[in-house]
Amino acid sequence: MSEHSKSSPLKMYFGIWITLLLCTYITYKAAFVELGQYNAAVALGIATLKATLVALFFMHVWHASEKLTKLVVIVALFFLLLLLGLSMSDYATRLWS
Amino acid sequence: MSMPTTIPQPVERENYLNKEYGVWSWLLTTDHKRIALLYLVSITFFFFVGGFFALLMRLELLTPAGDLVQADTYNKLFTMHGMIMVFFFLIPSIPAVLGNFLVPLMVGARDLAFPRINLLSWYLYIIGGVMMMHCMLTGGVDTGWTFYAPFSTNFTNTKIVEAGLAIFVAGFSSILTGLNFVVTIHRMRAPGMTWSRLPLFIWAHYATSIIQLLGTPVIAVTIVLVAAERALHLGIFDPKLGGDPVLFQHLFWFYSHPAVYIMILPAMGVVTEIIACFSRKRIFGYSFVAFSSIAIAVFGFLVWAHHMFVAGISIYSALVFSFLSYAVAVPSAIKVFNWTATLYKGSIHYDAPMLYAFGFLGLFTMGGLTGLFLAALGINVHVTDTYFIVAHFHYIMVGGAVMGYLGGMHFWWPKISGRLYPEGWARLAALIVFIGFNLTFFPQFLLGYMGMPRRYYDYSHMPEFQVLNVLSTAGATVLGVGYLLPMVYFLWSMRYGKPASDNPWNAAGLEWKTASPPPTFNFDEEPVVTWEAYNYEELDAPHKREVPVAR
């Protein structure tokens, strides 16, 4: 338990939480800036950063000693890539006319 | 004066069934075997609810005119039939009942890795089920089980959000079951139980768990998006708001195509165990069968857009998905060929579980091969949304998954209940199910190929379809009898069946090395595995009927 609290102190959790709130605020503000098609890219970029922070720190992937945890993360990312990649194979080559 | 002689009564060994009594001992149990039985009762209930809707549909289609129910009611019937059968029966069927019961026993563990999460998963399932029943009784849903946008998001005024939430909650039950299996299989194997000694049932459940863990969150999020679009008018699927209705289909089928493998992979695991036992042989090509399960789990995620060839997706993308859909047949075919090779020169016993396994082999092959028709772009366009599709997926999901489930229930019933079921009745039921199933669904292949659309309640403009529809309805009645029979004799056997020995089939596998029914913590001593899987050459033939052992 003590080892656990050493690696994930309360201060760090609050730091991550405030960063997440800050990111949410930036997402909100960025939505009002006219960036054309890049608005979605910025929002998705910030969301990805937030998800990464949650996974690494709140879900303890950063200090995970278990190989199984790392395996789950890698496999999950791989399948996310499949979802996005194969869906984009449709959107990128569709005859929009 | 002589003493009265006392006849010693056999003392029943303590086991998971008689350790505690009372409702709370079941509702608060963390024993994986008891939770499996809770699931068994729950999914049987939903099976008969879903079956009732199917029966009503088949009665409606007995005549070409729409004379039993109105169009709206018919739409709700096929929707609720699909939702209940897919999410509340088929997906939890083998994993949550047989998997829950057997995974710890087969790997030599005392329980699953997270027993309380296991109980939580059953409660989530029940909460989802109650929500679905409430939704059904207060109006139901009419979109089909597929929830296609924009009908589900912009047009229908039925209970989409409630049904979606029910499936969302039940989905978490599925995720938790998958999580428990993955951790148990990785971390709780008995000493000596290496990966290459694991029963193939375990490999199949491991592959299933991967799909449950990685696919289910996607359908959950998709359903939330549908609810959000209905409630908040977010532009996700509505083109007027910048969305795309085809995106819904991408997200939906990303889960729902692999979901078919959640149903069929465990059935493949069951059939592998049965074929090895009743052929008295080691499974031919163990590693190929094991890795083909993982290959199916991975390839299963690459083929979803073959459900969307007529939905307006890119033709280039369709070509890729067509190719990948052919590819997923390869690991399935590897399994079928290996099972067949196992039968070759085996000492085959035609007990009821084996009859179901044979049924599975034939029906799954039919379903799989017609799946290849659907992978072909040209034929797919011709038969999309016809009865051909209905027949195809019922051959997989009922002919495959349900046959596997029933085969598994018969095979492990002596272990689960400690009693033998009546073999003659069981063989008769297997035969009735096989005949009833083919009579119900084979005519639907013909109907579909001739052009009868699915989801129509009235075909009075095409009265020539009636003969095949009458055959199908007659078959459904026979099938219904076939499904009722096991329920009756399983219940009967719990009280009147002969007590089963610990290993009535003389089967390999750790689950047969403990008592029937097993004690609460499965094994009196931690087992140490020193033998390879399926060492049937070292075991005698089944002695189920010859040696009824008194407990």
What this model shows, in words?
The complex is a heterodimer of chains A (97) and B (551). Chain A has helices at 2-7, 10-30, 38-58, 67-91. Chain A has 97 residues and is mainly α. Chain A folds into two domains: 1-63; 65-97. Chain A is flat, with a radius of gyration of 18 Å. The termini of chain A are far apart. The mean pLDDT of chain A is 87. Chain B is globular and about 70 Å long. Chain B contains 16 helices and no strands. Chain B has one domain: Up-down Bundle (Cytochrome C Oxidase, Chain A). Classes of the chains: A mainly alpha (97), B mainly alpha (551). The A-B interface holds A 68, 72, 75-76, 79, 82-83, 86-87, 89-95 and B 182-183, 186-187, 210, 213-215, 218, 246-247, 250-251, 254, 301-302, 304-305, 312-317, 320-321.
Spell out the key features of this protein.
heterodimer, A: 97 residues, mainly alpha, 2 domains, 4 helices, 0% strand, B: 551 residues, Cytochrome C Oxidase, Chain A, 16 helices, 65% helix, disordered C terminus
